[in-house]
Structure formats: structure tokens, C-alpha cells
């Protein structure tokens, strides 16, 4: 029985007894000391407040009726002390009316005992208080652990956030320029990650006059792994280092030429398949243009169909579809051809456009993209057109979901040789 009591009362070690009657204090203290508690006595509420300010007890047993500061006033003042340790408060009273009990509870008392105090009842009330204190302190301990864990997570999050900001700068360096003229024609680019970093990539390069290559890529998944893949692809299709660009080949040791689009897709597919442990794949549209003749040659590997906007305002989605790169070995890729004329424009875009969710829950789809394009001012050109197109996209997206995927585009304007 004693062992059980010690276990039950383990949350209470130090008890403060407050009573202006010396006899009542001795009676209570005697019982409490017999049960193994450390007991402190105070003959007034004022003295009790001084003790509590120095050393907070686990339990207070206080008489209600005392000269000067009453037990009710003491309880109310005590509860205003700034302490992270909770103390269980029992008021001793001869009052049993409901309104008196309500007063005590409002002042911050946890329990009541009617005088004269029965020893067994006091012990039972202390036992109940000990259980409550035990649960409170366990909760407080867990809250502190959670707070420490949250602080550690915040430090880790801040470090990751800092790294991601730097990673975004590195990723942005993969697209050194967002608009460039090639003779009378122009390529403009749009790249809007849905997070710090993304898995979309757009780019352009030209090995010489009248020869131009540009592309739109969307790597599977999101986040860091997709971004790492775009960094790798940016090296494979470098606009600065032609000797590393798989879309070019050096001829006669003098100049670079653009390889056929289907060969570029096959080369990228072989390289990705050969890398064990890589589960990512990507979709792509890669276009090469002869700026003298207006002949367009293109490979489409699972990417959305490019939108061809003719000079007279008519539109059509072009391409043959194809299989994403990195899914299966030895996939044959085919070349698609089209003839462009001065004033024609071509829009390559990722599925971040067509698969964005509208307010009604439906996806934008290619037809929705076509409506956005037609809503844009036909006099707009280059970067201005892409910025307007993206702004119009943000106006129809559901606020509940926002941008769930990266959004990117490459816009080519052909104006003849």
C-alpha cells in the first residue's frame, strides 16, 4: 500500500500549508510528513506568496478564511505568477454553497475540502491531484521535446531553403538568355518553376547563320531529383560549349552542324538508359530551323503537341507524339517536318499549361491553351507575348491548387531570311 501511494503521489514532493491557525497547520503538516512529503508552512497569504516566488511548491493546501489576504485572494494572486511549473491548489473551507465553489474555481483553485479535514479524504484528493500533475508534466515535457524538435527542423529547413535558393540560381544559369534574335527571327523562353527549383528546361543554340535549334523539356517528378536531371540535360544541350552538345557535330574540323532531331532523341535515350539507378525520364520537343527556307524539322518525345500559329491567325497543333526519353531502350524516334512562312509563329510548352486545374476542377487542356493564346494581343511579340500568356494562365487557375507543376515555353517567331 505504501509503495502504491508513493507511486501515485510521485508528482508531488513539496507541499505548502497556509493557515493562520498554528494548530491547523500542525495537524495538516503532521499527516503530510507522515506520507513522505516535504512540508513548508505559512501563516498568511502574503508570506505564502513570498515563499512561492522563491521556490514553487508542487501542492498548496490553503485555508479560505484568513485575515488580510484571504485564501481566495491568495489563490487568484498566486495564479498570476509567471512560472512554467504548475502547482495544484486545494482550498480548505467551511463553505459548501455552489456559488462559493464557483468563486474558488474562478480564482484558480483545483479542488476543495470541507473543514474539519478528514485525513483519508485529504490523501485521496492529493492522490487525484498527483495524477493530474503527472499528466500535465508529462504533456509539458513532450511539448518541450516537440518545441526542440521544431527548432531543429527550422534550422534544417532554413539550411535546405538556403541551398534551394542557391540551386535555383544555378538552374537559372542553364538558361543564360530568355530572348535572342537570329537574323530577322527570334526565340523567346519562359521558365516558371512551381517551387524553388523545377524539372522543366527550355533552351536554344545556333552553330552559325541561318541554323537554329531550340527545345522544351519536362523531366518526370518534381523537386531536387528532377532539377538535377535538368542540370545534366543543360550540359547535353549546351548553348555555350558546342563540343559537349549532343545535338551538334563537328565537320571537317572547322564548323559545327546540327544533327537530325531524331538522332538527338535517340542519343539522349541511350545515355539515360545506360545510367543505372536513374528512374527519371523526360518528355521533349526539339526543333531545328533552316532560317533561309523556313523548313522546320522536329522530334516529339511524349511532349505536348506544339502550337503553330500562322500569320493569318489560323492555328494547328502539330507533331506525331512519340515515347518519352529514358523509358525504354532502342526506341525509334521519327522526324516531323513543316513549312513555315514569314509571320508564322511556333509555341512549344510543357504540360504545366494544359494540366493546370481551373476553378471548376477541370484541366485547362489544349483547347483552353488555344483560348488563352487567342485572347493575347496579336501585336505582342517575343517575351511580351509569353508574359501575357502566363499572366492569363494565372487568372484562370484555381486559387485552391495554384501552380501544381512547372510551367515553361519556347516561342519562335519566323520572319524570313
From TrEMBL:
Source species: Ruegeria marina
Enumerate the spans annotated as Response regulatory domain: 14-130
Picking any one GO biological process from the record gives:
phosphorelay signal transduction system
Q: Which GO terms describe its molecular function?
A: phosphatase activity
Keywords linked to the UniProt accession: Hydrolase, Phosphoprotein
Query: Which Gene3D superfamilies does the UniProt record give?
Result: 3.40.50.2300, PPM-type phosphatase domain
Q: Which residues carry this modification: 4-aspartylphosphate?
A: 63
- SUPFAM superfamilies, alphabetically? CheY-like (SSF52172), PP2C-like (SSF81606)
- Going by the entry's taxonomy, the superkingdom of the source organism is recorded as Bacteria
Q: What is this protein called?
A: Response regulator receiver domain-containing protein
A family per Pfam: Response_reg
